[in-house]
Amino acid sequence: MICSLRARRSRPARGKGAVTVGQATNTTGESIDVLTEARSIERTVANQRAREWAESAMRYELHARAERQEQWRRFHDDIAKFHAILATEHRQKADELAEG
Q1: What is the pLDDT of residues 56-82, one digit of tens each?
Q2: Quick one: 29 exposed, middle or buried, by C-beta within 10 A (0-12, 13-18, 19+)?
Q3: CA–CA gap between residue 99 and residue 52 (Å, rounded)
């Protein structure tokens, strides 16, 4: 009886749903191809998103840099105006003291 159990286990399954070695290899190969293709698509999409993010970050940084530069320009322009007013006031005060 033990021999007959071993014999049954070692026999390949036959009938409905049975798969031959050639079919299994082909199915496995197709599965690997599908997984490889899916991974390739995911990688392509991820790379595209990374490029888009990098481009967006670069555009943001350029815009922010231009905005900071404009703020500094306005600051220095305002300081120059203030100094011009202050210089005029000091000139007037010096003239008054000279006349005086």
Answers
A1: 999 999 999 999 999 999 999 999 999
A2: exposed
A3: 70
User: Token digits for 75?
Assistant: 């600051």
Instruction: Provide the 8-state DSSP code for 83.
Output: H
At 63, list the tokens.
């815009």
The 8 Å CB, 24+ separation contacts for 54-59 are none
37 backbone dihedrals φ, ψ, rounded to 5°: -65, -40
Please report the pLDDT score of residue 1 as a whole number.
Answer: 47
Question: Which structure tokens are listed for 14?
Answer: 């036959």
Q: Stretch 16-44: mean pLDDT, rounded?
A: 78
Q: What single DSSP character describes residue 11?
A: S
Enter the pTM of the model. 0.52
